[in-house]
Amino acid sequence: MIEHEKKPEPRTPGKAIIAVLPLGRVREDILRVVADGLQGILRLPVDLRDPIAVPEDAFMESRNQYNAMALIKYLDRELSHNSLKILGITANDICNPILTYVFGEAYMGGRSAVMSSARLKAGLLGEPVSREQFLDRVVKVAIHEIGHTFNLRHCHTDRCVMRASNTLLELDEKLNYLCDYCEIFLFDSLREALKDPEVADGSV
Amino acid sequence: MSRKNRFMVVDDELIVRESLAAWLEQEGAVVDRAESGEQALDFMQENFYDILFVDIKMPGMGGFGLLERAKKSFPTTVVVIITAYGTVDHAVQAMKLGANDFLVKPFEPEGLGIMVAKLMEHKRLLEETQYLRDEVTRCWGGPDEIIGQSKPMLELFDTIKEVAPSESSILILGETGTGKELIARAIHAHSKRMGGPFVPINCGAIPESLMESEIFGHEKGSFTGAVRPKKGLIEVAENGTLFLDEVGEITPKMQVDLLRVLQDKLFYRVGGVEPIRADFRLISATHRDLPHEVAQGTFRQDFFYRINVITLRVPPLRDRREDVPLLVTRCLQRFARETNRDVDSINDEAMKILVEYDWPGNVRELENVVERAVVTSKRRIVTPEAFAYLTGQDICAGAGFSPRSLEQVEIEHIRRVLEEEEWNISRTAKVLEVDRTTLHKKIRKYGLNR
Known about the structure:
Chain A is of the alpha/beta class. Chain A is 35% helix and 15% strand. In chain A, the strands form 2 sheets. A 5-stranded mixed sheet of chain A has the order 2-1-5-8-7, sandwiched between helices. Chain A has a 3-stranded mixed sheet with strand order 3-4-6.
């Protein structure tokens, strides 16, 4: 039987743990569902930011895709933001040097994550999926990538959102919330981060 | 991945190193990064890696160099070659050099997960196979299971290791009970045929009338009672070792039949018309003086030469008395464990008897003697009384009989039991079947002390 520990208190009212940042033009309903999803499911304060342009040096001309790792580095390097973690969202297709595409990308324990909505619209046979199914996928990818920034690894629990999902089918099969273990690990990680004085006083 | 795996990504390109390592870390693995083959080898001296992901094109040693070094020094580490579209030929070359798989950049995300899972399963099976192989070697009695530290035995161990890998027929000579079958099993366990069966045949125990059918098998209806075809032991031993124990008991006709098999590598089942390929290594053993029998004409010379390409002689136990204490101790522990008896040592006097005994039945007799001592002993320490029947003397009565008083006998007996029980009063009282108070009184009365 897992005993849930008491959730840590947010740092100070009005200061977000997670910032959601549109990279280029991103549909309003996507941004809203991601912000609501992170706030409602992870129960962490979320700040929805104004969009910024997608950094052009992250574009890989030979693959006609944006390099997700370059986007993460850009977010880490260029932006000062008053939040513990930041999730960049783009409508452009993203990849990394070893993978032909990724739905999202994050470093374990990193500060920034990035995700794309580009490949989440298609059904299993290429047909467009319903708006609800599309937004459901968007939320799952957002939680999954933010989970990695809190040091959550791929989970083997049946339908946990942290389960690896390299295909749309795998993405559809899992649910949009953390299993009991991942939730415990998330709050442990958050508690650890809040011990950092810079994080605690909100100066990050 | 259920357990914590350790991987290493070796690539001079930072971006590839980072992206692959980040992906693997999300899977729960510990991932080290190296930017050259040299650095990777340094890391490998410090840690054990399950999988190495190695780029082919790197300055310095390069991927091929690292692959060769890694496979030579760390054969169980799985190596995956990272390559680009243009260098698939190189990847194929790498597979020929022992790489386990290759990764063409960029890779479909689901393919990478499947590949890592497949390689981890492959590695698990390799480790399991190695474990089972070691277990089989241990159970079948490698040289480690043959006990001996004497010079003749050490020489024998060396010879076993030397001759085991060859395919030559071996004849093991030695008295009954010296452990010839154990030697044969050790040779098999250290030969290239170790994965195949070891089939022992006691030639002295199979009736002459059944010998041919047992060894060569028979076809259905070839004789009365042959209601179905049967494989012979030669077929059972395919790819393995056939051990002919007591080969000196084989009839002259069977010697001819076996000689033909050894020369032609083919045989026929009894009643069969189709030749069957024979692929086994022959080890024979006997306690008889075969050269003398060859000289007398009672054993075929050509067959003797064919089975006697290499000769091993197992020394009798009386010629290696220094091994007796080691054998006794091992047997004592084994039988105490098997029979669940609380017997854990043997005193010096008793051991001396065993070392000086001539052991006409060799190691087998020693095992029987020790087993009997363990089963019949009422104490933790085996004493000379347990071996009185070996010397035909009543050891309990001492070196010789001389008239003594009852009190004198009692004093000696109490002192002996006290010493055997390490002056533990409770245990001594239990052995003497008196209570502790009585024992204390007698100790005081006779002035016994350590």
